[in-house]
């Protein structure tokens, strides 16, 4: 398996800016007081923001793109996109973790990445936390999914303190499987499942897990 580039001798720093600031390197986070501002994780190329209404239209446009939504069976309606948007906002507010809105450093919307709490006992995996991402078509091929998902995982593991996180994708989504490999996730075929989409169509999920001690040294 490809090793993480975040080794002890070459730490990269991420920052979460809120009423407090949290600076996360390899294994620890330290808090400092800071004036009120937008909650944000910053990576070398990206900013991961909490959702607000300025993201809503771009979020809906991404979900209306047939190529972007191919793994989901095609585009979704504006009403369904808005419901999804509100779920992400509620998860950030109520659980401290969700998908993050991913932007360039100059504020262009690229998509989302982050750890979503899945609390329904009706899911084949039961209640769980799931790392996922989705990006606009023009954002593909630049490594943004890996960079933002790694930052979101570092926040979820070292700041939120989540003990187990999984990821899953459809069997034909080679791009997402490649991201999971670059994140050093581990395939867990015993947990593969089939569920129904919002359209009532069957969807097969291949499961990967964040291993204990992630990210490795």
Structure report:
It is a single chain. The chain is α+β, with helices and mostly antiparallel strands and about 220 residues long. The chain has a single domain (about 15-210), classed as Aminopeptidase (3-Layer(aba) Sandwich), CATH 3.40.630.30. It has 4 helices and 12 strands. It has helices at about 55-65, 80-95, 145-160, 175-180, and strands at about 15, 20-25, 30-35, 40, 45-50, 100-105, 110-120, 130-135, 165-170, 185, 195, 200-210. The protein has an 8-stranded antiparallel sheet, with helices on both faces. Strands 9, 10, 11 and 12 form a 4-stranded antiparallel sheet that branches. β2 and β3 form a beta hairpin. α1 packs across α2 (about 80-95).
